[in-house]
Amino acid sequence: MQADSLKTSILLIYTGGTIGMIENPVTGALENFSFAQLKKHVPELQKFSFNIDSTQFSQPMDSSDMDAKAWRRLVDIIYRNYEKYTGFVILHGTDTMAFTASALSFMLHGLAKPVILTGSQLPIGVIRTDGKENLLTSLEIAAAQTPEGKPMVPEVCVYFENKLMRGNRTTKLNAEDFNAFRSYNYPDLATVGIHIRYNQNAIHYQEKEQPFEVHTEMNTNVAILKLFPGIQETVVRSVLSISGLKGVVLETYGSGNAPRKGWLIDCLSQASRRGVVIVNVTQCKSGMVDMDRYETGYQLKSAGVLSGYDITTEAALTKLMYLFGQGLTVEEVRLTMLHPLVGEISMP
Ligand code: ASP
């Protein structure tokens, strides 16, 4: 359905990333340019029948520099403008977009409006840019309404190259292709061709309206520990004994398996007993952790490691930051990690 143009107003938030970069004529390296310059390259923005306002980070950033402080800034912008706008589009670098989308999905509690993150692989000033289509379609999606006049996609999403995905299910998979993001374990929320086809069965609509609240505290005392054949005890022990460590995403093999080494299980059980929450996430792109399937997974479970089921590393890590940021006890964090909060896990 077409948005009611009289009432629809979208806030475009520019954080930086390739979409708004330009080539330095001397070094040839890509550098950020201002949002005003970016808009000049997209005159189509004026053709929409709804209102588009914009705001930007004072210093546009490469998304490699994203951190909890920048997420807080984004959440703050959305909170201050929540009543005024029907939806939000965030222009963001692709490198850490899946982390930001996951973090925002937890930080924006009771969200009932679209927050669409997008970016591009080629800067918007380049003739073959993918940025224009990504930007224009994201705006159209953010403004779309159901026949009842409600936002069509009231979720934090990533839109990239013809696909709208639940933000906390995405992963960047390609450094070169325009088709750079995937949601391996959850269906796309919309596919875009001549028509934008919404998959309303996959979109989350609140049954009962919840109050919109934001949670800005993120505890970044977390780590990712990726297993590999030949990994040494000193590596595992060093990571797990980091002072103040709260949570670890343990990237395992296949359906959640790890080498059957006594020292590994000892290190994990000791950390777990000390209150470190360890979540088992598979290194496979798709599929689910099942620690009851093989002995190698079962021993992790006995060591106190939690199943991440089909969660992405990006979502598991930011969920740990979010839960510890709320001041929950270790037991509360452990329990909450095992259940979906905002559609980030499918239960077996
Ligand atoms: N390095 C850039 C960034 O993530 C890459 C991109 O935007 O595609 O900010």
How would you explain this protein's 3D organization?
By secondary structure, this protein is of the alpha/beta class. It has two domains: 9-214, L-asparaginase, N-terminal domain (Rossmann fold); 222-337, 3-Layer(aba) Sandwich (Rossmann fold). It contains nine helices and 18 strands. The chain has helices at residues 35-40, 68-81, 97-107, 131-143, 233-240, 262-273, 295-302, 313-325, 330-337, and strands at 9-14, 21-23, 30-32, 51-56, 87-91, 108-109, 115-118, 156-160, 163-166, 170-172, 181-183, 190-192, 196-198, 213-214, 222-226, 247-252, 277-282, 306-307. The strands form five sheets. The protein has an eight-stranded mixed sheet with strand order 4-1-5-7-8-9-12-13, sandwiched between helices. Strands 15-16-17-18 form a four-stranded parallel sheet, with helices on both faces. Strand 7, helix 4 (131-143) and strand 8 form a beta-alpha-beta unit. Helix 5 packs parallel to helix 6. The longest helix is centred in the N-terminal third of the chain and has 14 residues, at 68-81. The radius of gyration is 21 Å and the shape is globular. It starts with 8 loop residues before the first strand and ends in an 11-residue tail after the last helix. Bound molecules: aspartic acid (ASP). Aspartic acid is lined by residues 17-18, 62-64, 93-95, 119, 121.
Describe the SSE topology.
Blueprint: E1 9-14, E2 21-23, E3 30-32, H1 35-40, E4 51-56, H2 68-81, E5 87-91, H3 97-107, E6 108-109, E7 115-118, H4 131-143, E8 156-160, E9 163-166, E10 170-172, E11 181-183, E12 190-192, E13 196-198, E14 213-214, E15 222-226, H5 233-240, E16 247-252, H6 262-273, E17 277-282, H7 295-302, E18 306-307, H8 313-325, H9 330-337
Parallel strand pairs: 1-4, 1-5, 5-7, 7-8, 15-16, 16-17, 17-18
Antiparallel strand pairs: 2-3, 6-14, 8-9, 9-12, 10-11, 12-13
Aspartic acid (ASP) is lined by residues 17-18, 62-64, 93-95, 119, 121.
